[in-house]
């Protein structure tokens, strides 16, 4: 039978008095919370304890005497109390362990993994550590009395020297309410604007779901709504989530302001605008050269000259159209950049989303080429596979989803074979064009993916939790570790309990803000198969949020 | 199992030469019967001297007669010669000795003649399946011709960038596949794979010719030779067997002769192939039939007395 007594370190230097705490019978341990000094009137003590117990049910007083100079007396007292609790018939050798803990740290820390809700004490008993932490955390009312009060009782606990409070925290708490009201009011206006009829037309809705700026806006709106509720956070998780959101938002805006400061000085915008049109021209020229190379005999491949010329001229004409469009737009580019740069005041994520959208718009012609090439190739592959079946005298049975033999007519055989030959010999040409444009498209997709990933990182990284972990590691506890203070045979074992902070990776995993993150839709094998057959690929997929 | 060695466990009585059972002793008074359900005083694997008496040998064997087999094999030879004729025509057109117009007109005339013959032969015999109307035939012909004519410029440029050797190799391979997979027993309707292989080979060859009209002419000729000619031959075989043989021989001679005018080595090879397929292989077949020794059941259970550990 091992008896564990959790003793606060701040009470080591206290005068003699009553130990007040909680007895956890299922674990045979006692958690001492405070010491009430002599002289005291037992009636007052009882009243006080009852008053405190009425608010929190975890405190119960164990009357025992503590003497500064003989800890052994205390020990025997507690043992006697223990014995009076349990009637034991056998005389067992009792082992006692004194665990010294730092009360302030244990009170403020949160044990992980966090259990939400109230677990059923019968079917799912809490672990001892958790019960101990909960006891200390729930004993807030006990710690209101300090040394300088004029009440009838004097007690010693971690707040004896005066209650700790920080001015900044108090000011922030006062400023919260009007701020929340302001945010709520702004949000209601914004939501009203968004819900105007004209914006729910189909093309606009489709566009807004594709543009990443709009997605980012809706995501921010949702989280602002979460912040603007005037109720205080219920529970540790919600508090951390709100804090993370606020800190992420502030960091985002700060980075955005930095970007604006850099962008708008020294005429950077004009420089950017002046390099944009020549860059687009350069890209078009490179594409032109690429197509000319394809129209020749690239890498010694056997291309069909006629088809080659047709496809090459078609794509060249498209590029010509695109360049004319860019030149048409060139006077407005500076203005667009100037106003677009202002969006960074909402945050760096907005600027990055805007950049991603602009890249998508500027490389729209590559996307078009990719779609043409992919569709042509897909058609060809599909036709070839079907005609190959005809070649062997078989047919695809749609009902049974299998290949059956079939007796074809002479006409069907003849025409089928002719078409098969034609498609087979034109395959290398089409495949090459498809390959080239798919590679270009994948490059663009990769670049956009990098932008989205960085936006996602800024959105979801729990900065507040991470900084808490670095500056005050005892707040996020994974467990405890014990250090032996005194181990002599014949006396009780003295251990010091220290809090084991949560690992950084676990911090990120637990407190990560859920976002509309982009993640790859298909596995590698499925992607390669899609590329081979010619299906259009959209490698990134957005997780739909509740507002969609 | 080689013949004559089925006496493992049953020893031959040297005096009477009759087979005796494994015991070599006269059995009890009750005779042994070959039944399954009766409890007899003999062990389960006992067989008396009637061991393997009911064995049948070479049952259902066909007696081939040499000239009948030659006649059937003639069909194979005829197919071979058809392919040779097709290649000859191609060689002629490629070297410019035959103009595409001539070929087109000849093909048309042949097709009409063949169609007339086909119809004449069909009306003689009542065929059970529904007859194709003249309109359906005209429709098919129009589809063929228009499609081929429309596609011939595309087909002409198909193999421009492919090297000559590759084209020849592909065509040879496909023609061989055509010969191998041809349904010699029922040429009408023609088998899908063989017809498609032949058409693929003809497209490959036709795309090597100098003009679009050449391609068109070549393809029409291919259609005639590979798709329509076997149907006519089948009709002929059904209705006039003696004429059929004559036609086969004629085609073979024509093939050898035609090939010989352009490529004498090929003609020799063809003649050799025809001789071996038509005359030599049937001889082998008839000769080897005598060596046939199949045994069919019913079987009896044997008991092995020899010491197998030395094997």
Automatic annotation (TrEMBL), chain A:
Transmembrane annotation, as ranges: 182-202, 245-264, 310-329, 336-363, 369-391, 412-436, 442-465
InterPro entries associated with the record: PigQ/GPI1
GO cellular component: endoplasmic reticulum; membrane
Signal sequence region: none
GO biological process, one term: GPI anchor biosynthetic process
Organism (species): Sander lucioperca (Pike-perch)
Protein name according to UniProt: Phosphatidylinositol glycan anchor biosynthesis, class Q
Entry keyword set: Membrane, Transmembrane, Transmembrane helix
Highest taxon of the lineage: Eukaryota
UniProt-listed PANTHER family: PHOSPHATIDYLINOSITOL N-ACETYLGLUCOSAMINYLTRANSFERASE SUBUNIT Q, PHOSPHATIDYLINOSITOL N-ACETYLGLUCOSAMINYLTRANSFERASE SUBUNIT Q-RELATED
Pfam families in alphabetical order: Gpi1
Organism phylogeny: Eukaryota, Metazoa, Chordata, Craniata, Vertebrata
Record's keyword annotation contains Translocase: no
